[in-house]
Amino acid sequence: MISRTAILVLLFSAIFSYGQKNSETEKKIDKLMSKMTIDEKIGQLNQLSGEGLSQNIVAQVKNGSVGSLLNEVDSKVIYELQKVATTQTRLRIPLIFARDVIHGFKTIFPIPLGQAASWNTSLVEDGARIAAIEASSVGIKWTFAPMIDVSRDPRWGRIAESFGEDSYLISKMGAASVRGYQGKNLADKTAIAACAKHFAGYGATESGKDYNTTWIPEVQLRDTYLPPFKAAVDAQVATFMCSFNDINGVPSSGNKHLNDDILRKEWKFNGVLVSDWASIEQMQTHGVAANLADAAKLAIDAKVDMDMMGFAYTKNLKDLIKNKSVKIKQIDAAVRNVLRLKFNLGLFDNPFAENSESTFYANNALSSAQKAATESVVLLKNNGLLPINKDHKTVAVMGPLANSPADQLGTWVMDGEPNHSITPLDAIHKNFGKNFTIQYEQGLAYSRDTNSVNFSKAIQLAQNSDVIVFFAGEEALLSGEARARADINLPGAQTKLLTELKKTGKPLVLVVMAGRPHTIQKEIEMADAVLYSFHPGTMGGPALANIIFGVENPSGKLPVTFPRLVGQVPIYYAHKMTGRPAKDIQLINEIPVGAPQFSLGFTSYHLDAGDSPLFPFGFGLSYTNFNYSPVKLSATTLTRENSITANCKVSNTGKMDGYEVVQLYVRDKVASLAQPVKRLIGFEKIFLKSGESKELSFDVSANQLSFHDSKNNLIVENGEFDLWISTNSNSGSPQMFILK
Ligand code: GLC
Asked: 239 has which bridge partners?
């Protein structure tokens, strides 16, 4: 039994082990800073990309003109450079080594979009913890993750790195990542500093084209884009990173309102804010800085502490101090934040990592990665063909992603090794080859391949099989940073080959592995069953094989809306009602020739797509069935003093055990600013055995109904609300309650 005192001590140390100010540490910082020259101070604000033990890097470390290195992962090089920093410099200040450990270091988990599809925050936390253990073992003490940009545009390659379109789900996933990376105490040897990025609004990039401009009214910034970042601050995230984009003309790296008024003053964040790669220097290209000195001033004025590969600080801050454009106290504030991070990470006491390669691909890591991959797979359609059984003895495994170890890892894999991937083909052969006859024909060499030379072989193989399992999707290199696509159909000749295979009349399972939603309406219609797997990582093969053959029951739910056509984008569930929501839709091929000009009605939809998505946010099927009882409210009146409880009984009425993600949505029906038609404010992932039921209760209080008014105040307004407890964002019937 832990005593109250022990709990208080634990609580105290936890609170003061992150970016929070701790008087002991502040005194150490004061003492160290009192000895630092201006050059040594500016050196701490300079982050360079590793070059091994190059003369340049060793010299810069030796003369104290670099405070952090990114992209150095050779443990011996890290050790040598840290030795130089802590024994051959005047003040022996340790370096901090950083790396993009986005969804695994060596053991690769599903891309974050896939992890979000699991709706399992403990899985996400485990994945980040495992990544931290692997990365810290070589000396990495800082990752540039979680990426918590709200992403509603599948044309944007970086949607792969995000947790999808919904602020609430992203907030939960981002906070879980922070806990995983940073562990219980930042000074633990396996802890690494997390980084909330990209601050802010990057996902609103116009046309989904990377690095593009964004127009975000502050009300929307605060209601939609900022909540995940505030959740990260509440989770004690140690660092933030600026985004490349401008918001309404102001690049984030020079955005004082964002980085000072909101992040520092409103949220009281005193961790490190690092620029993105050369994003300070690029303010010249944005056209808001006439030269590098201007850019440096804009950034330090905007409280950006560290300059990643921009050389703006190291080349200009000293002169800016001399000509009094910048005050020394601005430099000191930034240096304090950097030194505080290094003290909190324990780098002054333990600057060297314990390098134990054995931490790579440990069994527990691989099984956690497989569990995450399994729970990230979304069943989009099933006419009963899945799971494959003995009626389909001969299985034709096909497609460009059936056996592509690098592609299944997805984007932002800096250190994961494809030779450790277990592909679907590997897993199907190994685990099901005894009971089924497995035949394989890739059909296309890679996702963009348009060469039909192997089509006849594939068709013939299909004709000699009982079922086709086709692995389609996009190569990893088509996903991620600077990988925007204007056309999000399956690349290459995949649809052509699927069409030919369909003509064989054989039952067809389509498995899509990708870093984004694709417009797969035609493919959905052709296939008897469809699984969507957002690049599932090292263990993607066993995860998918076990689902295809029924060892596992799929439970993923879409963290992002799937459009029918790319022209519908942006399309997301938490949209506004508008004054003319879609009604009496007549699609373009249903309109009679010569119909009178005004006969088609005047409501909001696309003639060639309607107004609904292909699949809504939160959607995902199961091999079993879950039945939801009507929602019961403990009261129909809510006040600011009390909360009400929404209850619903969920039953597994099918034959297979399985997970279900029960989702809680509300709608504010009348407010001073138009509100979304639905907003996720809670969810619970439950496991039900076949025939089992569970009574779920969600507490709802007034503060969950808040929004920002036109003066950017967070308010709650009285009035009528609808509430749903359902299996996705487009199902269930609402219960009404009143807030007064
Ligand atoms: C990249 C990305 C950022 C990443 C950084 C370091 O350009 O925008 O997310 O952390 O540079 O690799």
From this structure: 195, 272
Residue 477 CA to residue 734 CA, distance in Å, equals 43
Structure tokens at 41: 């101070």
Token pair recorded at residue 663 = 């989702």
Give the whole-angstrom CA distance, residue 279 versus residue 295: 9
Ligand 1: residue of 71, 111, 144, 161 to mutate (most ligand atoms within 8 A of CB) is 144
Identify the helix (H) or strand (E) that includes residue 168.
helix 167-182
**Whether 113 contacts 159, CB under 8 Å:** yes
- The one-letter amino acid at 158: R
H or E segment at 288? none
The whole-chain average pLDDT of the chain stands at 96
Is residue 619 within 8 A of residue 716, CB to CB? The reply is: no
* 719-726 and 658-668 strand pairing: antiparallel
**CB of 100 sitting under 6 A from ligand 1:** yes
Report, in angstroms and rounded to the nearest whole number, the Rg of the chain calculated over CA atoms.
27
CA dist 446 → 102, 511, 535 (Å)? 25, 15, 15
**How confident is the model over 472-493, as pLDDT tens digits?**
999 999 999 999 999 999 999 9
86/78 Cα distance (integer angstroms)? 12
> Bridge partners of 659?
687
By C-alpha distance, which of 232, 211, 267 is closest to 146?
A: 232
Nearest CA to ligand 1 atom 12: 100
619 Cβ inside 6 Å of ligand 1: no
Helix 227-234 and helix 167-182, axial crossing angle in degrees, nearest 10: 30
CB 97 within 8 A of CB 139: yes
Contact 472, 399 (CB under 8 A): yes
DSSP 490: P
Exposure of 119 by Cβ count < 10 A (0-12 exposed, 13-18 middle, 19+ buried)? buried
Write the CA distances from 100 to 91, 235, 390, integer angstroms.
28, 20, 44
Report which of 166, 158, 153 is spatially closest to residue 224, judged by C-alpha positions: 166
Dist. CA 706–CA 642, nearest whole Å? 15
Report residue 104 CA to chain centroid gap: 13
Q: Which atom of ligand 1 is nearest to the CA of 277?
A: 11
Distance from residue 358's CA to the centre of ligand 1 (Å): 28
For residue 677, is it left (φ>0), alpha (ψ between -120 and 50) or beta? alpha
261 is known as an active-site residue:
no
Q: Phi then psi for 352, rounded to 5 degrees?
A: -110, 145
Question: What DSSP character marks residue 156?
Answer: S
Q: Are 247 and 279 in contact (CB under 8 A)?
A: no
Share of the chain above pLDDT 90, in %: 96
Testing ligand 1's pocket by substitution, the residue of 275, 277, 279 carrying the most ligand atoms inside 8 A of its CB is 277
For residues 531 and 516, what is the distance between their CA atoms, to the nearest angstrom? 14
Q: Please give the C-alpha separations between residue 679 and each of 59, 229, 306, 558, 673, in angstroms, as whole numbers.
A: 54, 18, 36, 15, 15
pLDDT (tens digit, 9 = 90+) per residue, 580-632? 999 999 999 999 999 998 888 999 999 999 999 999 999 999 999 999 999 99
How far apart, in whole angstroms, are the C-alpha atoms of residue 298 and residue 706?
A: 34
Give dist(CA 220, CA 319) in Å, integer. Answer: 39
Please tell me which residue in 276, 305, 407, 415 is annotated as part of the active site.
276
pLDDT tens-digit series, residues 377-435: 999 999 999 999 999 999 999 999 999 999 999 999 999 999 999 999 999 999 999 99
The CA 309 to ligand 1 mean position distance, Å, reads: 11
Q: Which residues contact 37 (CB under 8 A, 6 or more apart)?
A: none
500's tokens? 């030919």
Do residues 308 and 47 lie in contact, with contact meaning Cβ atoms separated by under 8 Å? yes
| Alpha carbons 40 and 493: distance in angstroms, whole number | 57
Q: Which residue has the tokens 């545009």?
A: 153
C-alpha of 488 from chain center:
19
User: Has residue 356 got a pLDDT over 80?
Assistant: no
